[in-house]
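Notebook entry, structure prediction.
Reason for the run: the old model in the group folder had no record of what sequence produced it. Starting over properly, with the input documented here first.
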Amino acid sequence: MDKKVQRNFLWIALLVLGTIWILARHNRNTPYQMDNGLIFGTVYKITYQYEKDLKEEIEAALKRFDGSLSPFNDTATITRINLNEDIVPDTFFTNVFRRSMEISQETAGAFDITVAPLANAWGFGFKRGTFPDSARIDSLLEITGYTKVKLSDEGKVVKQDPRIMLSCSAVAKGYAVDVIAQLLEKKGIQNFMVDIGGEVVVRGKNPKQERWRIGINKPIDDSLAVNQELQTILQVTGVGIATSGNYRNYYYKDGQKYAHTIDPRSGYPVQHNILSATVIAKDCMSADAYATAFMVMGLEEAERFADAHPDIDACFIYSDEKGGFQSYFTKGMKKYMP
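New structure, fully documented this time:
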């Protein structure tokens, strides 16, 4: 190698090293922004490394999302579809609908967005019903089932029965987290955590330059959400995380506890010993839907499903015969443990 080539090689090496140093120093000096607020009736917390605050953009995106998928919004896309208006849904709705249909098929109907009339009847939906009897449940099951609804070639929702109503509450919050994560990524942000009501996406590193630490609450009956006692802590990055449980949204009638997880196949609230299901997946929408499905399945069926799907990891907290808490972890969860 002659001297000219050596000089050129040295110059290129120094240029590359200098660029890396400048970028690394810039990344260290860029502050972490921390935004929080209320959306969808819950709290959001978003931490991200960026030179300026993006709260206004974030809340604008969440407002657009609410205008698509909130059944409590009278003008939302999903409300108009439930009222059988002849509309072509927006992208937010169609993305959730298609993924929901896929997971409904995978889980043999344990996850099902047509469960809305049943959830309403039991008092856990966007309309308050009275305590239903078996005849009422049987009639509602006639208009429940993911195979009874589809998207036409035009992209419109087609129902087998106009009384069918949709609720994306078990998946929309997770998708909202994905939407905000995508907003941050489009701005080149590499280090962030998006948390909406406990559904989370994490990328890169936290302000301490470590993996993000996410706690899983002990599933103690806590309708006011004041208990913050943790069952375990995960150290994660590059994933979506969602938890579903029956320890916050429930009521008692005649000494019997009725929790918000409704089995769309039977029409009744589940009565399993599984108390909460935490799922780690590539995206939060899928994690959200699988967590709900696992609560419907119960412990044994959920274990079999999770073990047969290596693209997801899960933690199930369940009650033993003595009323204590036990945990089941899929093999892949070990890499997230401290």
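Summary: The mean pLDDT is 88.
The old model has been moved to the deprecated folder.
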